[in-house]
Amino acid sequence: MKNIVIFGAPGAGKGTQSDKMIEKYGFGHISTGDVLRAEIKNGTELGKTAKGFIDNGQLIPDELMIDILASVYDSFGKEHKGVIFDGFPRTIPQAEALKKMLSERGHQIAAMIELFVPEEELMKRLILRGEQSGRSDDNAETIQKRLNVYNTQTSPLIDWYQNEGIRHHVEGLGTIDEIFARIAKIIDNL
Length: 190
Ligand code: AP5
Ligand code: MG
Known about the structure:
With 190 residues, the protein is α/β, with parallel strands linked by helices. Helices cover 58% and strands 14% of the residues. A five-stranded parallel β-sheet has the order 2-3-1-4-5, sandwiched between helices. The longest helix has 15 residues, at 119-133.
């Protein structure tokens, strides 16, 4: 079982590279952003709460995120090949909660893969996606807020996972396949 945290700033390629990992390794996938967007689409209470935070580029409170995590994880059953955590954890309390939830099941995170992409490129990618897909948080003002939240609340997790001894830094510039080759090398060595 290879549970993996795919980590990086907004637009770093977490979702794109998750798709490649699912295809090659048959992993399960939890994207908390996708979960929240589905809740918004279905008009649930959680969705109504989440929309305000997402459109303002802010994080949803930890308690709400942690509550949904275990049930989504358990939906993959007990004998899976591994689950990719995409967009979770985003704060140190979330990382601690993830570790606890997994250890209660006798599981753990095998690797944290940190995709590093410079801010100008992140902005370029997200503005382009905003024009093409219309994702409501892909406009210059909200992207800047998301980047600020990443830099202040989420990036401390790089050191946190470094201390856990499972952080892997990956250069996130290049073609999708070039970046995936860097990731696959790490996964194959776990
Ligand atoms: P979330 O949905 O997780 O968004 P994000 O982290 O801001 O990141 P993105 O999904 O925009 O980027 P990505 O890294 O997946 O990149 P992608 O592959 O799409 O979260 C959204 C919001 O939900 C948060 O702001 C927060 O409010 C809330 N939330 C979610 N999780 C939470 C949590 N745990 N706690 C609290 N709140 C939470 O690629 C981006 C674009 O670039 C795409 O168009 C893609 O085609 C393109 N691209 C990818 N790779 C390349 C490449 N190599 N070259 C050129 N273009 C590329
Ligand atoms: Mg994503």
